[in-house]
Amino acid sequence: MASAPVRTPATYADILALPRHVNGQIVDGELFATPRPANPHAMASSTLGMDLGAAFQRGRGGPGGWWIVDEPELHLGRNILIPDLAGWRRSRLPAIPAEAFFTLAPDWICEILSPSTASFDRVKKMRVFAAEGVGHAWLVDPAAQTLEVYRLEDEHWVLLSAHEGTETVRAEPFEELEIALRDLWIEPIEPAP
């Protein structure tokens, strides 16, 4: 009987060897490679990053006190992840590190779901974020035009709220700012009369 081949855990070198148009992440030693996101994904991420960055990083129309970063590379133990957006309270991260990655888990992450990555984002990455103590997570689905807001409690994600379409929301940990969901979508769904 032939034995199964021994799989060597993926390394950072495997990520660096990927083509430029492919994102690589490692969870539990397994390499996950995905193409760059489509425009609905990029639009939702960019708009949300601009809104949160202005209010919470720059203090324009909001309290400041955060670093908001687009697609930061996180080196968390043996896992290498790239959330679509992440935020650190400046009280925990007084300055952005000079390296090309962060080793301190963020206080908040946001994943913009795509059909090809939704399962990976919802299951594997959320497990790592919970284990690393990330306090809040948002899952944004441009196709369904939804926002799900989670808080970590006792090492488990608790759904605090879910929103859709053209709602204007205030969501933890950024409840000081109103977010118009319609601005995240390329073509907003109008509410039924």
Average pLDDT, all residues: 91
Q: Considering the protein shown, what is the CATH homologous superfamily?
A: tt1808, chain A
- Widest sheet: strand ordering: 3-6-7-8-9-10
Number of helices: 3
Global morphology: globular
Top CATH class: Alpha Beta
For the CA atoms, what is the radius of gyration?
A: 17 Å
Q: What portion of residues is helical?
A: 10-25%
Brief summary of the model shown:
With 193 residues, the protein is of the alpha+beta class.
Task: Set down the secondary structure blueprint.
Layout: H1 12-16, E1 22-27, E2 30-35, H2 39-57, E3 66-70, E4 74-76, E5 79-81, E6 85-89, E7 108-112, H3 118-131, E8 136-141, E9 146-153, E10 156-164, E11 168-169, E12 179-180
Parallel strand pairs: 7-8
Antiparallel strand pairs: 1-2, 3-6, 4-5, 6-7, 8-9, 9-10, 11-12
Question: Could you characterize what this model shows?
Answer:
- The protein has 193 residues and is an alpha+beta fold.
- It has a single domain (38-184), classed as tt1808, chain A (Alpha-Beta Complex), CATH 3.90.1570.10.
- Helix content is 20%, strand content 31%.
- The chain contains three helices and twelve strands.
- It has helices spanning 12-16, 39-57, 118-131; strands at residues 22-27, 30-35, 66-70, 74-76, 79-81, 85-89, 108-112, 136-141, 146-153, 156-164, 168-169, 179-180.
- The strands form four sheets. A six-stranded mixed beta sheet has the order 3-6-7-8-9-10, sandwiched between helices. The chain has a two-stranded antiparallel ribbon with strand order 1-2. The chain has a two-stranded antiparallel sheet with strand order 4-5.
- A hairpin with a 2-residue loop joins strand 9 and strand 10 (156-164).
- The N and C termini lie far apart (67 Å).
- The mean pLDDT is 91.
